[in-house]
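Fold it.
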Amino acid sequence: MEEKTLARLFVKRVDQYGDRIRFMEKKNGQWRPVTFRALGLEVREISLGLRALEIQKGERVCLMAGVRREWFACDWAIICAGALTVPIYPNDAPTQAAGIMKHSRARWAIIENMDMLDRIMSNPELPDNLDRIIVLDSPGTASNKPVIHIDMLRKMGREYESSHPDAFNHNVDAIGPEDELTIIYTSGTTGIPKGVVTTHANYMFMVEAVDRAFPLKPDDSNLHILPPAHAYGRLEHFFGHHKGITTWIAEGLGSVAENLLDARPTFLLSVPRLFEKAYTRIMAEGCDGSALRKAVFNWAVGVGKRVSRCLQQGRDIPPLLRIQHIAARFLVFRKVHNLMGGRLRFAVVGAAPTSRQVLEFFHACGLLILEGWGMTETSTVGAVNRLDRFKFGTIGTPLPGVEMAVAPDGEILLKGPNRFQYYYRDPEATAAAIDEEGWLHTGDVGYMNPDGFFTITDRKKNLIITAGGKNISPQKIENLLCGNALISHAMVCGDRRKHLTALFTLNEADARSCAQQNGIPHSSVKELASHPVIVRLVREWVEKVNASLASYETVKDFRIVPHEFSIDGGELTPTLKIRRRNVIRRYRDLLDGMYDEKFVDSV
C-alpha cells in the first residue's frame, strides 16, 4: 500500500472516492447519505479547530460517544492532527471515565451530550488536566470547564485555515508510521483497565491484513453495530474507509433487527451475541406450530447440515442433495436470510467465543459466520478463519506476518507487526505482558491442531481449579448452557470448591412467552426467575447439558438472577462479555447459598 499512515490513507481515499457514499445515518427517522467528500470537509474543519485550540502532535484527546457519524469524524480529525484518540465507552461509570481522562493526561475531551458530561462532572475525582470540553449535541455549561459545541469547533477550524491555508496537509505529512496513534483502555473484565498504546504502523498492517483475508467488492456494504471505542469497532471503521464501502450506522442494539432490513448489508462484523439470540429465536419458532411445520423445518436443517459437511470437507455436493438444498432454501432458509437483510455473504465474529452449534446452524442455512480472535494488545486481530479455509470451533489461523505459539502451560503467545507498543504509564504491566524475545503473553489458553488452526479454551485467569484439583474451563460449559432460548447469560463458578454451580439470567421475550404457554400470571421477569415452572425447565436443561459433560464438569446447583446482566449495571463489558468479578461481588449471597462455606472472590 502506498500510504504509510492512517492520516495519509484518510486523505487519499477522500480524494479517490469523492462523491461515493461513505455513511448512511438515520436522522429524524430518515436515512441520509454522507459522501467521502462531505466527511473529508467535516474532518478537516474539526482537525484544524483542534489546532486552533493549540493541540500538539502526540497529545491525547478523549472521545466519549456512541455509534454515530460524528464519532468517526472526530477520530479521523484527531488522527490527522497528529494527536492520539483515547476512546471511552459511553456507558462507562463516571468514576471509570474520569479515571481514564486523568490517567491519559488528556487536555481535551469530546463528549456526546450534556447529560453524559454532567455524569462525569458530578464525580468528586474529576481530573483537573482537562482544558476544554467539546460536546456533539446541545451545548451548555459545566462547572469551571470551558464547553463548546462541535459546530463552534468547526467554525474555529475554518477561521484557522483562512490564516493557515496549508496547515491540514502539513499536519498529515508530519505524521510517520511509528508515531503513536491511540491509547485504548482495556475493558477490565478481570482487573483495572490498562492503556494500550499502538502506532500508525500497527493499524496500517491490520488494514492490509484484513484486506487480504476478506477481499471486498465495490458495492459491498456493512451495518456498523460495534462500539467504536472497542478495538474491533475501531478497525471496522478504518477498514471501511480504506475499501471505499458504504457503512450504515446502526441506531443501537435495540434497533439492529430493523436496521438490518433497511441496510441489507453484504457483510457484518459483530459479537457472537447477535447470532446466538437469532439462533435461539429461529429454533424456538421452527419447533413451534403444526407437526408438518416442525417436520419441514427439521428436514431442511438436516439437509443444510449435510451440505455444510461437504463444504467443510472440500467435497462436491451430490446432485440430489443440491436439489434438496434448493428446496430447503425456498421453504426455510430464505426466511433466515431475510432476517439478516437478504444479501449477507459472510460475517466475522470476535471479542467472545461462539458456540459451534450456532456456527454450524447458520452455515447449514447458507450463511457463513467466521470466528476470529484478538485483543486490544494485538491491534484487534491475531487469527481468523477465512472464506476459503475455515474450521468451526476454532479461531482460525494467524494473519500473514503474525506468529503464534503455545507456551508449556497452554498460554497463547503472539509476535508480529500488530503487537502493541506498551501500556501507557505502566512499565511493570508492559514487562509482564511482553517478554525479552518480543512475545506477547496474551492471557488466553488453548491449543493448535495439526492443520495450524488455533482453539481458545478460556482466559488463564478464568480457569477453575476445584477442591479436587481438576482444571476446568467455565467458558465451554457456559456456551453449552446458553443453548436454550430461556437463558440469556450463564456464569459457571466453583474455584476451590467441591463442585460447580451457575448463575443464569433469563431472555425476557422467551421467558414471557413460556409463561404465557404455561398459564403463569406475572407482572415482571423478576417474578418468573423464581417461579417453580421456570426453575424446573431450567433444571431439566442443566441436566441435559450435564449428561454431555465429565462428572467433575457438571453443574450441581444454580440460581436464576432476577434481572438481565447489563452494561449499565456493570455486569457486562461493552462487547457483552461477563465481568466475572462484578457479578461475583453483586450476587455473593446467591453463590453462598449453594455452598456450605462462604464464596471466595478469586478472580
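Confidence is low (pLDDT under 50) at residues 599-603.
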